[in-house]
Structures are given as structure tokens and as C-alpha cells.
């Protein structure tokens, strides 16, 4: 029976979408985008609005290259390329002998396991295991003002 209800709902949704496509454009009296001043239309930037974010010309790969090119000579040398790895290795090499044994290499994982195993049973249950998930950073986006602030700024 639920299939008939789902089919009927799909038909109604399709009919409604078709009606909106055919008749929705006629009822719209407000333009989608606000009218732009002549300076913006001609390509000139407005300096009066400090909230407008500016895009940088550097691509992701150019930014990555610049992080490695420490002396800014336009080339990444072997030492520049390996500097970050040497730093990470030095953090892991706790006894400073220039070699990593398994315990030094696994110290982070061992510490993470010991922290998650709250009842010290030597095994993690599902709740304890869930605390070991890698926490990802949210993708960085341009900071735009909320819609209410943008609307009130236009009214001013």
C-alpha cells in the first residue's frame, strides 16, 4: 500500500515542479541579483565596501610550493623538501639515536589506545573506540555575513 502512496506523492511533486517551472517565472517581480553600480559592471573594484572578500591569485599548488620554498628563490631544494619530514622524524625519535624502533614509531598510536581504553581492560568497546576517530578540519570557506546582516546593510 505504501508504494501507491509513494507513487502518488511522486506524481504530485512532479506536477508541482512542472507548474512552477512554467508559471513560476511570471510571478517573480523581484530580481534575483540586486542592481550593480556601473563601476562594478565595468570591472572596477569598489573600495568603499570593506566586507567584500578579495580572491588571491595563488592556486592551491602555488601555495603548497611556497610553503616548501623557504628561501623564496623559485626552487624547492632537497633540503627544503625534506625539512618537514626531518622535523616529524625528530619528534618521533625520542631517544635521539637517529633510528626509530617500533616503540618510538608507535608511541602516538599506543598513547591514543591507552587514553581511549578508559576501563584499562586492554580492549576497547564500541564507545571507547569511537573516541579514536580522526577529527577532520572543516573546509575553510569565505566568511560571508549571515543573510539578516546582509539585508540590513542594504537597507541602511
TrEMBL record:
<dbReference type="Pfam" id="PF13202">
    <property type="entry name" value="EF-hand_5"/>
</dbReference>
<dbReference type="InterPro" id="IPR011992">
    <property type="entry name" value="EF-hand-dom_pair"/>
</dbReference>
<dbReference type="GO" id="GO:0005509">
    <property type="term" value="F:calcium ion binding"/>
</dbReference>
<feature type="region of interest" description="Disordered">
    <location>
        <begin position="133"/>
        <end position="156"/>
    </location>
</feature>
<dbReference type="InterPro" id="IPR018247">
    <property type="entry name" value="EF_Hand_1_Ca_BS"/>
</dbReference>
<feature type="domain" description="EF-hand">
    <location>
        <begin position="56"/>
        <end position="91"/>
    </location>
</feature>
<protein>
    <submittedName>
        <fullName>EF-hand domain-containing protein</fullName>
    </submittedName>
</protein>
<dbReference type="InterPro" id="IPR002048">
    <property type="entry name" value="EF_hand_dom"/>
</dbReference>
